[in-house]
Amino acid sequence: xxxxxxxxxxxxxxxxxxxxxxxxxxxxxxxxxxxxxxxxxxxxxxxxxxxxxxxxxxxxxxxxxxxxxxxxxxxxxxxxxxxxxxxxxxxxxxxxxxxxxxxxxxxxxxxxxxxxxxxxxxxxxxxxxxxxxxxxxxxxxxxxxxxxxxxxxxxxxxxxxxxxxxxxxxxxxxxxxxxxxxxxxxxxxxxxxxxxxxxxxxxxxxxxxxxxxxxxxxxxxxxxxxxxxxxxxxxxxxxxxxxxxxxxxxxxxxxxxxxxxxxxxxxxxxxxxxxxxxxxxxxxxxxxxxxxxxxxxxxxxxxxxxxxxxxxxxxxxxxxxxxxxxxxxxxxxxxxxxxxxxxxxxxxxxxxxxxxxxxxxxxxxxxxxxxxxxxxxxxxxxxxxxxx
Amino acid sequence: xxxxxxxxxxxxxxxxxxxxxxxxxxxxxxxxxxxxxxxxxxxxxxxxxxxxxxxxxxxxxxxxxxxxxxxxxxxxxxxxxxxxxxxxxxxxxxxxxxxxxxxxxxxxxxxxxxxxxxxxxxxxxxxxxxxxxxxxxxxxxxxxxxxxxxxxxxxxxxx
Lengths: 388, 159
Known about the structure:
The complex is a heterodimer. By secondary structure, chain A is of the alpha/beta class. Helices cover 42% and strands 13% of the residues of chain A.
C-alpha cells in the first residue's frame, strides 16, 4: 500500500487550489508583471509595525487568552457599535483567530454535521467550499451572473435550499468579482435566512474596501445578529496579511463552540499580531483611508483600461479585483491565463479557480502600482488583438 | 482638489488622462484645475529628489542656527529674504526657541560652506550669531527614504 493511499479519502478527493497550480507556473518565470496577487501592495503602515516591535521589547511573547487579548476584543466591539450600530459583548461574543481563514474553518466545524448543506454563492474565495467539505458538510454552490453584477438573489437561493440546508456563506465585497451587495438586497437575503432558519456566515474582510456607497454589515440588519457569524480581520484594509489576525463575532453559544475547537487546535492567535492589530484600530484609520482612496483610483484606471481594450467587464464596487470576461476569445480561463503569461508575461488568475461559474473570466488584482497596472493593460491589449 | 494633490504628491508622473480616470472627472476639468493650482502657487514646483552621493558627486550640507535682531515693521522677514535669496540656501525656517532662523546650506565642500557662513551670512546687518552644524549623513529627504531596503515580499500569485 502506498503512502498516498493512506491519506484520508476526504482529503484525497479534495481538489487542490486552482491558484496554487498557477502559482507554480508563474514562479518559474522572470520579468512577469503580476496582477495575480490577492493581497495589498502596501507594506503595513509603520506605526503598526513599530507598536509590535515595542510590544516585543516590553516582553509580550507569551500565550494570550484563547479568545485573544481583551483590549483587542474591546476595540473591535467598540468599532462595530460605532460604525454599524451592532453591539457585541467583548468577553463572550468575540474571538480572535489566525486570520479569517481560521475563523471560517472554526465556524464550519462548529456548526456542521455530516451531510449538512451550505449555500455558497460563486465565484467566491477559494477556501469556502473546501472548508465546508473538510468539516463534513456539502457545499451547494449558487452561480452568480455578470448580468446581475455578481450579486446573489433570493430566487437563486430558493431554487437550491433543501431541508438539509444549515447555513449560507457569503463574502461581500467579493473576491474575485469585486461585487458588493446593497443594503436592500441583503435585507432580502436576511428574510430568506429567517424563513428557512439558516445560520449566515458573513465574511466581510473587504468591507472597508467599498467604493460605492457604504458597506452594510450583515449582522447589523434587524434580527440577524443572533444567527450571523460575522468574520473580519486586518489583512486587507490595514495591509496586514502576513500577521494572520482575524476575528469572529457572534452569539455566545457559537463563539464558545468555535473557541472550544480553537483552544485545542490553535490555542491563540500570535500575540505580536494582536498587539499590532490594537494599534491599527486605535490609530490606523487615516492610513487605511489613504490606501482605500488609492485603490479606488486604480480601480477606475482598470475599468477604463479594460473598456478601451474592449473586454466585457463588470465595474467592481469593492475589494481590489476586476473580473473581465474573456469568452470572446473562445479560450478557457486557464488556457487564456497560460497563454497571456507565455506571450506577454502578465500573471492573472483563471476565474474557474473560484468556482466553475468563474470559467470564462479572469481575476486581475489592482493591488499594484499604477505603473505596473498601465504596463499590464498595454500587454493585455496587445495580446487580445490576435483574437479579433 | 485634495485628492488631485494627493495623487500628484505620490506620483507626479501621472498623465492628465490617468488622473482624470482615477478621480472620475473630465479631462478638461483636471487640466484646468492643474493650471489653477500652479498659477496660484498651491502646487509650488515639481522637483526631483536626487541622491547625489550615489552619482559620486560630493556635496556638503550644514544646518546653521542664526540669531538675529528683528527690525521695525518687517520683523524677521527682511533679514530672512536677504538670506534665502542666496542659491546656497536650500531651506530656511523661522523657529521658536533658542535661535531665530534655521538655514540649511549646501556647498561643494567644507570650505565653500564655511566661506558662505563667514563672509555672507554672519556679515548681514542684524545677524547676531551663527552656530554651524555639518550634516554627516542624509537618511530621508522631502519625505523620501533615500536608501529604502523595504521590498515587495509578496508571492506572485495568491488567493
